[in-house]
């Protein structure tokens, strides 16, 4: 890895970490305090459902961010979109930290909170596509899986940082009532420092070599989104279903469900907030390590095979994980989150390389961003809300396990329809081959492979 590739790797990791730290502290706060501070007049159970729904609300606007970032990312470049999305996320997060609560501002408090969450969603929708393309398109030959896993680890790193920061506030700096009064604000305000660091780092990296080729030949697609849906809509749908399996399961922790479920003083477990947050941070650390391992596996045995192994592991863990959580033991909670994170990491590490190799260069930013955003809606958007509703309706978590199992099985089927293309040339000059053969039922793949052999 040369100096520029190391700089790109660092920039994608640090920027994505900061972006998702911002995103996840909202989800954590939604599970712990927002139902009380912003939605309490609705009543305890309904307030918690609304709080989780506000987490999902941002997902509905992620496609808008993906459309905008994809359009301009394919026209003016990957790097510019990375800087813009990071700045937008940071501004929204910092403002949440100074919002008045319902007690002081009435109905305006939840309205402003939801508006800022929407801005977070727009930013998150545009962030991921640019980060993974910078990593994958700069990667060395034969190491795209590993390079693509770097921005992926920004998600568990962001979760680790968010959980650690929240645990510091609840357990050391502002325990008890102080956390409700002012302590919850600090993690949001700290974001402005992290954003400044991420902004500086991202401004220092070179533009993607693939986009430089496109710009040099003045071959930018006028309306890449229209081309994407006209010619490649099956890829978008199948790629979205692949991500939905990982995202629905992952949002049990990243969306705040486990935190709320295990710390509810009137619930069946009733653990301390700080203890649970540290356990979540442990799970995030395992997720991070397995994600990196999965990136290497994707280069060795293929993206699709790594995914298939991951979905099998994830499916097999669903019922045991909830059984361990329901034991009420803090030690078993650590085991549950660690076990859960193995499947999450195996189905997250290969994603950047798999997605990047699905779409032709001219619409690649739009393709990966929109697929990711739609997958997030199908999978994680309202997964915490659905899980909470199922618990309230059935009095247990078995229905939650069944719900997640269905989504994971659908994702396994979807990834099995994708042809592994880990050796394909991603450059603009190879667009003709990139246009065909991404799916196993695309018969044009045979023609493309025959032409490649004859060269």
Automatic annotation (TrEMBL):
GO terms for molecular function: transmembrane transporter activity. GO terms for cellular component: plasma membrane. Residues 8-422 form the Major facilitator superfamily (MFS) profile domain. InterPro entries: MFS, MFS_dom, MFS_trans_sf. Pfam families: MFS_1 (PF07690). It is found in: Cell membrane. Its main location: membrane. The chain crosses the membrane at residues 20-39, 45-69, 81-102, 108-136, 157-176, 182-201, 235-258, 278-297, 309-325, 331-349, 370-391, 397-418. Keywords: Cell membrane, Membrane, Transmembrane, Transmembrane helix, Transport. It is a multi-pass membrane protein. CDD domains: MFS_ShiA_like. This is MFS transporter. It comes from Glutamicibacter soli.
